[in-house]
């Protein structure tokens, strides 16, 4: 920490580019004792007073007029020099500002300053053991409703009174009655106090796990801050490797962080960590109240919680001596923040690991193309877990050709094979999951006879259908009209399509009137914890069939599920983006990983109009390498990442004509800036974004592609410099996204 002095360097908390530099302020004599690096201050700026952060102490240039700091708002540093460096890197990398980046890094700390002190919320836990409950449940046949509540509370402890009542479909008074009798108990929610009884699992790591762990350990103890890619199939026991590696880091006196996608932060995951590390685990995720998050953050800062388990933003946790970072399911898109500061937690983690000399472990059954490419190139060290821990087989995947079904007169949602498979499960009292990939915002066109999908000849992504009858490419704006006949087979069955979960539910009710159904999609999961409740109900055997979107693909570990049906794999396969194939492979692999976790073997039925697609073939044989080989060739030939880098500039405004016009102007400016550079930078578009209107605003986009991210950044900076003056509108939103993922 630098010596304090009479002049402080301050970053003002105004996240606009023009303000993104260090200002000098005089430190009044009375404040010199208290002021320190990283403290939060109030300073005059023009006619206003604004918040700022002290980032150093130095003499200003002699000719500048210096104002005085008004007040110190927080004497304790709100960030460390390491985190300031991380903020500066974030600002540079994502074309943002240091103030914005700092806002994200210290959000848990600052938000609580303004927030009121919320008392911890209450949640309900079983007050009896599972054995006692079994007696209870069998004896009280008449008290249906109470039994339903108890079963839920056991399957899914920690729900609030209202959540529990809603999930069991009873009134709150039923829940209260159980509390009064002591069958349920009220526990105050403090994130870190949710302790689970029980001992850590004690099994021997198998040979593959042990070998992987040994490599990570060697890097840890040898102080070699390497990056590992742990490629392990679903059920291969990656989590146990993480836990052991974290334990080693702690034995070496260092700290560790494990990031999981939001949806993976299930009670099971939390339990594993808490059983292993007890009070030393801090939890950071979006479901915490500001107060809970603040408390966890402070525990981390004070060194009381050397293990952090959290989602995306936990990557900023104030660990002082980080020795290990684990990112589970590293390919997940939820690691990318899609607004404000558009960071990817994996990239931030890589930078943080560098700054603190930490080992980074990326784990996945289906690594992102970027990561696997780096691993093969030797930038990351590849570790493999090729078998399931219990020696169980991956489920068999049956691909059903929907073209054939049509030819043979079946126009329904369900193929005969899937219908039969469901019937069998119902007959045996086993459970089935029917999975419907979300259609996304765009509709593609497919020939139902030959499976042809219309694509952009320039960008190789699916064209999107518009009601006006034309087809458009959302990267380069190529347009053509919808043909009456399939250009390949001349069939008239060429049309846009998509089915929703409701439609599937209706059809299931018609076909299997006796089956008990649960549906999980954005409609049924509007209330807090709905997702968890529905899963708990399904787990406890309340339904035979669960119908849902992506939401159900992950983390589910239900032993009685022996069938997973993918209603239509094509919905993901033909999303209008170059990662559509990768997403499909990941989804199918994940979905297939859901079946056959118990003692019965599982089966997966995948319905598609494109059974010969390499992604479908590779997914059906659980062959990541095969998928990678095919996909990487396409990326290379079409010049997409990992061979190039992309950036997206999105413009949004209420008036379509204006935003279109401005997008064209910006395109020209970007083209010009690109032309002045030696290495080539392509500017694609402008084109309407797939989600062409959102919150009353029309959205147009430009996509930049080049070999180096630095040149993309330089071109965008030059293009945007002075653009506001051309536009003269305060209402135009301009968003820059480096390494965009979703591009909706
Ligand atoms: P992954 O994350 O790779 O899909 P998990 O880490 O969830 O797999 O492990 C799957 C299951 O196997 C878990 O229930 C875990 O407790 C168990 N498990 C992990 N390693 C072993 C082992 N060496 N022996 C026995 N069971 C194991
Ligand atoms: Zn056709
Ligand atoms: Zn195109």
Summarize the structure.
The chain has about 750 residues and is an alpha/beta fold.
- Give the second-level CATH assignment, the architecture of the largest domain: 3-Layer(aba) Sandwich
Task: Tell me the total number of β-strands.
Answer: 30
Q: Class of the largest domain in CATH?
A: Alpha Beta
* SS content category: alpha/beta
Q: Which blocks of ≥5 consecutive residues have pLDDT under 50?
A: 114-120, 191-198
Rg, Cα atoms, Å: 28 Å
Task: Enumerate how many helices there are, as a single number.
Answer: 24
**Biggest β-sheet description:** 7 strands, parallel
The helix content, as a percent range, equals 25-40%
State the distance separating the first and last CA atoms.
44 Å
Strand percentage lies at 15-25%
| Neighbour order of strands in the largest sheet | 11-12-10-13-14-9-15
Counting structural domains, the number is 5
Instruction: Write out the distinct hetero groups bound to the structure.
Output: adenosine-5'-diphosphate, zinc ion
CATH T-level topology of the largest domain: Rossmann fold
Report the principal-axis shape: globular
- Quote the average pLDDT: 87
- The CATH superfamily of the largest domain bears the name P-loop containing nucleotide triphosphate hydrolases
Explained architecture:
The protein is of the alpha/beta class and 744 residues long. Helix content is 35%, strand content 22%. It is built from 24 helices and 30 strands. A seven-stranded parallel beta sheet has the order 11-12-10-13-14-9-15, with helices on both faces. A six-stranded mixed beta sheet has the order 5-2-1-4-3-6, with no helix packed on it. The longest helix has 20 residues, at 656-675. The chain starts with 6 loop residues before the first strand and ends in a 6-residue tail after the last strand. Mean pLDDT is 87; it is low at 114-120 and 191-198. Bound molecules: adenosine-5'-diphosphate and zinc ion (2 copies). One zinc ion (ZN) binds next to loops.
């Amino acid at each position: 920490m630098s010596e304090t002095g009479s002049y402080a360097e301050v970053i003002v908390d105004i996240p606009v580019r023009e303000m993104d530099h260090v200002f000098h302020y005089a430190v009044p004599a009375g404040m010199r004792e208290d002021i320190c690096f990283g403290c939060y201050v109030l300073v005059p700026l023009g006619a206003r007073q604004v918040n700022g952060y002290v980032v150093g102490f130095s003499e200003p240039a002699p000719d500048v007029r210096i104002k005085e700091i008004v007040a110190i708002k927080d004497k304790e540093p709100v960030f460390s020099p390491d985190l300031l460096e991380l903020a500066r890197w974030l600002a540079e990398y994502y074309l943002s500002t240091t103030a914005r980046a700092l806002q994200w890094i210290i959000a848990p700390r600052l938000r609580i300053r303004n927030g009121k002190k919320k008392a911890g919320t209450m949640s309900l836990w079983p007050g009896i053991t599972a054995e006692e409950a079994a007696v209870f449940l069998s004896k009280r046949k008449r008290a249906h409703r109470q039994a339903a509540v108890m079963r839920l509370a056991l399957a899914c402890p920690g729900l609030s009174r209202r959540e529990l009542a809603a999930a069991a479909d009873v009134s709150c008074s039923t829940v209260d009655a159980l509390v009064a009798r002591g069958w349920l108990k009220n526990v105050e929610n403090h994130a870190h106090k949710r302790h689970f009884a029980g001992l850590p699992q004690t099994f021997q790591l198998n040979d593959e796990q042990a070998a992987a762990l040994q490599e990570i350990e060697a890097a840890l103890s040898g102080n070699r801050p390497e990056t590992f890619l742990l490629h392990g199939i679903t059920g291969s026991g990656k989590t146990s490797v993480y836990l052991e590696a974290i334990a080693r880091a702690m034995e070496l006196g260092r700290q560790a962080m494990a990031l999981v996608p939001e949806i993976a932060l299930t009670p099971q995951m939390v339990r594993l960590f808490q059983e292993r590390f007890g009070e030393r685990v801090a939890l950071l995720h979006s479901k915490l109240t500001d107060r809970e998050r603040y408390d966890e953050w402070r525990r981390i800062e004070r060194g009381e919680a050397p293990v952090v388990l959290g989602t995306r933003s936990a990557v900023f946790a104030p660990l002082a001596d980080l020795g290990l970072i684990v990112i589970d399911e590293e390919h997940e898109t939820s690691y990318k923040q899609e607004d404000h500061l558009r960071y990817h937690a994996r990239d931030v983690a890589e930078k943080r690991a560098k700054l603190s000399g930490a080992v980074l472990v990326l784990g996945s059954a289906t690594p992102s193309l970027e990561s696997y490419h780096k691993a093969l190139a030797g930038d990351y060290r590849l570790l493999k877990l090729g078998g399931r821990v219990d020696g169980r087989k991956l489920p068999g995947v049956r691909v059903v050709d929907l073209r054939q079904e049509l030819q043979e007169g079946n126009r329904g949602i369900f193929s005969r094979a899937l219908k039969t498979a469901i019937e069998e499960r119902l007959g045996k009292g086993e459970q089935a999951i029917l999975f419907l990939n979300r259609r996304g915002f765009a509709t593609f066109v497919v020939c139902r006879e030959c499976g042809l999908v219309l694509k952009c000849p320039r960008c190789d992504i699916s064209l999107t259908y518009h009601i006006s009858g034309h087809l458009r490419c959302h990267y380069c704006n190529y347009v053509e009209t919808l043909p009456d006949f399939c250009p390949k087979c001349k069939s008239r069955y060429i049309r846009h399509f998509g089915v929703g979960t409701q439609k599937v539910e209706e059809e299931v009710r018609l076909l299997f009137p006796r089956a008990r159904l649960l549906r999980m999609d954005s409609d049924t999961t509007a209330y807090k914890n709905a997702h968890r409740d529905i899963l708990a109900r399904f787990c406890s055997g309340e339904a035979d069939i669960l119908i849902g979107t992506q939401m159900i693909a992950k983390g589910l570990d239900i032993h009685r599920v022996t069938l997973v049906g993918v209603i239509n794999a094509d919905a993901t396969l033909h999303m209008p983006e170059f990662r559509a194939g990768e997403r499909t492979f990941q989804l199918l692999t994940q979905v297939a990983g859901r079946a056959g976790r118990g003692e019965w073997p599982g089966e997966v039925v995948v319905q598609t109009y494109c059974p010969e697609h390499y992604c479908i073939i590779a997914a059906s044989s659980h062959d990541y390498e095969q998928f990678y080989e095919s996909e990487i060739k396409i990326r290379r030939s079409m010049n997409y990442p990992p061979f190039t880098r992309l950036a997206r500039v999105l413009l949004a405004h209420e008036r379509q004509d204006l935003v279109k016009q401005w997008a064209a102007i910006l395109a020209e400016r970007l083209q010009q800036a690109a032309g002045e550079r030696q290495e080539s930078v392509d500017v694609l578009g402008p084109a309407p974004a797939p989600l062409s209107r959102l919150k009353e605003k029309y959205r147009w986009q430009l996509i930049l592609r080049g070999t180096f991210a630095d040149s993309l950044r330089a071109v965008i900076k030059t293009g945007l410099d002075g653009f506001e003056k051309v536009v003269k509108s305060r209402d135009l939103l301009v968003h820059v996204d480096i390494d965009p993922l979703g591009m909706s």
